[in-house]
Design a protein that fits this description.
The protein is mainly alpha-helical and 156 residues long. It has seven helices and two strands, in the order H-H-H-H-E-E-H-H-H. The protein has a domain of 64 residues: Arc Repressor Mutant, subunit A (Orthogonal Bundle). Helices cover 64% and strands 6% of the residues. Strands 1-2 form a two-stranded antiparallel ribbon. The chain is elongated. It holds the Pfam family MarR_2.
Length: 156
């Protein structure tokens, strides 16, 4: 007999937590070793994820003043994480472009230094197939139900 939906969701949460705990050091390492502040990491993730493209976008999403964003962006440009490009249609608008260095930090944070792929190589093919089908189904459900203009969750 198949477990109830509620029990399967509960088991999924338990397994997700256990896997995250096992990989925590790999997932947290780029945050610690980057030398970036939490605010700088937020900005990099927002820009590399296309959730913000300008300083004004960042100020709005982060709910801070444009001046504080400007200071952080200046530092990230100087450090080689971002570059600036003028908007072809409106020279008053400056777009923030992630550099390869920013993209690498983004990928390390979100992908855990390739940890997932390493361990997937060792899974039985039938289990890997079920996992891929499950993730594809989850992606479809999220795509169908996600708010097209979501507000980011507030920081605690």
């Amino acid at each position: 007999m198949t477990e109830s939906r509620a029990r399967l969701i509960e088991r999924y949460a338990e397994e997700r937590h256990a896997v995250t705990a096992l990989l925590a050091s790999r997932l947290v390492s780029p945050l610690i070793t980057s030398g970036l502040t939490a605010n700088q990491l937020k900005i990099i993730l927002l820009i590399t994820s296309d959730l913000a493209q300008t300083g004004r976008d960042l100020a709005e999403v982060l709910d801070v003043s444009p001046a504080s964003v400007s200071t952080s962006v200046d530092r990230l440009v100087a450090m080689g994480y971002l570059s600036r490009a003028s908007d072809a249609g409106d020279r008053r608008v400056t777009h923030l472009i992630p550099t390869e260095r920013a993209t690498r930090i983004h990928d390390q944070i979100l992908e855990g230094h390739g940890a997932w792929e390493h361990y997937l190589e060792h899974m039985p093919v039938d289990d890997l197939d079920a996992l891929v089908r499950g993730l594809a189904s989850l992606r479809r459900v999220i795509a169908e139900r996600i708010d097209p203009d979501p507000a980011l969750p507030e920081s605690e």
